[in-house]
Design goal:
47% helix, Pyrimidine Nucleoside Phosphorylase, Chain A, domain 2, globular, Transferase, Pyrimidine Nucleoside Phosphorylase, Chain A, domain 3, 333 residues, single chain, alpha/beta, five-stranded mixed sheet, two-stranded parallel sheet, 11% strand
C-alpha cells in the first residue's frame, strides 16, 4: 500500500480501513511524512470526520510504539481527550488522585497542556509530584502507592514527529482522540471524557475491540469532557463486552447542580492551589464534581457497586484526611 495513495484518498474525503490507517500513522510516527503532508492528513481527517476504523488503526500503531509498564488487570485510568475549551480546574486528574487515596490502583496517563491552560502533568508538577521515565520506578510506585503518572512525552517518543504540526495547527486533531486510548500500562478500566458526544460510542467500540473490561465514556450536556455537575451527562458504558447508553443526572444521587463558573481554572499554579484547598475541605463546589468523577473510577475498579457508592467513598476519604495524607506521601518520594 502506497502512503501517497492513502494520503490522497483522505484528501478526497474517503474513509480509510483500519489497515490503511495503521500504515499511514506508522509512517507518520516513524518520521517518514513531512510536516506539510502531516498537516494535510490531520486536517483532512478532521474535516471528513475520523471513523472508528481510522482511530483503531492509529491507536494500534501508537500502542505498539509506546514505552510500556507492567501492571495488573485491575488498574484504572481517568485520561480524557481534553479539548472541551471549558478551562475548568483539572477534574479528572484530581479524581484520579482521590480514587487512588481510596485504594483504587490508578495508572494515570496524561500530558502537559496542548489546548487548555493547565494539563494533568502541569497540575501534578505544581503540587510537587515528580515524573519518572523509568518503567521500573513507575511499576514500584503502583505497587507501593497504587498510583503512578505516566507522562505521555516519556512514553510516546514517536509523537516528536507531530508535536510541531500540532502546535502550529492549534486545533483538535485525531491525536486528541488517541491519547486516552493508548495507556502505557494497558489499563482495561477507564473513565474517559470526550469533547464531543459523537465520540462516545466510537471510543467504547474501539476499546471493546482492544480488549478493555469496564469503561465509561462521558460527555456533559454542557460540553464538559467529564461527568459534569452543571447539567446531566451522556454516558456510554462498556461492561462484559456489551455497550449501553444512558444519561446520568447527579441529582439522582443527592447532588445539586453548580455553575461551571464555580470551578473555572487558571494557570497550573492556580489549579494546583485549588486542588490543595479542595483536599483540605475548603472548596466545596470543586470537591463535589471531583467526588462524582472519583466515584465513577472507584465503581469501575470494582470497589463500589455504582457511582453513588463510589462518590460516598471519595467524600469520606477527603473528609477523614486520607486524601491529604496520600498526596503528602506521593509528593515526598
Amino acid at each position: 500500500m502506497d502512503i501517497s495513495n492513502i494520503k490522497n484518498k483522505l484528501i478526497s474525503q474517503n474513509n480509510l480501513t483500519s489497515d490503511e490507517s495503521f500504515l499511514l500513522f506508522n509512517a507518520i510516527m516513524n518520521g517518514e511524512v513531512n510536516e506539510i503532508d502531516t498537516s494535510a492528513i490531520l486536517i483532512s481527517l478532521k474535516i471528513k470526520g475520523e471513523t472508528k476504523d481510522e482511530i483503531l488503526g492509529a491507536t494500534k500503531i501508537m500502542r505498539s510504539k509506546s514505552l510500556k509498564i507492567e501492571a495488573t488487570d485491575n488498574i484504572v485510568d481517568t485520561c480524557g481527550t481534553g479539548g472541551d475549551m471549558s478551562d475548568t480546574l483539572n477534574i479528572s486528574t484530581a479524581a484520579s488522585l482521590v480514587a487512588a487515596s481510596c485504594g483504587v490502583t490508578v495508572a494515570k496517563h496524561g500530558n502537559k497542556s496542548v489546548s487548555s491552560k493547565s494539563g494533568s502533568a502541569d497540575m501534578l508538577e505544581n503540587i510537587g509530584y515528580k515524573f519518572s521515565d523509568d518503567s521500573k520506578v513507575l511499576e514500584q510506585q503502583l505497587k507501593n502507592n497504587n498510583f503512578c503518572f505516566m507522562f505521555a512525552q516519556f512514553h510516546h517518543s514517536a509523537m516528536k514527529h507531530v508535536i510541531n504540526v500540532r502546535k502550529t495547527l492549534k486545533t483538535r486533531t485525531i491525536f486528541n482522540l488517541l491519547g486516552p486510548l493508548t495507556n502505557p500500562a494497558n489499563a482495561k478500566n477507564q473513565l474517559l471524557g470526550v469533547y464531543d458526544k459523537r465520540w462516545l460510542n466510537t471510543h467504547c467500540e474501539v476499546l471493546n475491540e482492544l480488549g478493555s473490561n469496564k469503561v465509561m465514556v462521558v460527555h456533559g450536556f454542557d460540553g464538559l469532557d467529564e461527568i459534569t455537575l452543571s447539567q446531566n451527562t451522556y454516558i456510554c458504558e462498556l461492561q462484559n463486552k456489551k455497550i449501553a447508553n444512558y444519561n446520568f443526572d447527579p441529582r439522582d444521587i443527592g447532588y445539586e447542580y453548580i455553575s461551571l463558573d464555580d470551578i473555572k481554572g487558571g494557570d497550573p499554579k492556580y489549579n494546583a492551589e485549588c486542588f490543595m484547598k479542595m483536599i483540605n475541605g475548603d472548596y466545596n463546589q470543586f470537591q463535589k464534581i471531583v467526588e462524582i468523577n472519583a466515584g465513577a473510577a472507584i465503581y469501575l475498579s470494582g470497589k463500589a457497586i455504582n457511582i453513588k457508592e463510589g462518590a460516598l467513598i471519595a467524600e469520606k476519604s477527603i473528609a477523614e484526611g486520607r486524601t491529604k495524607e496520600f498526596i503528602s506521601r506521593i509528593t515526598d518520594e
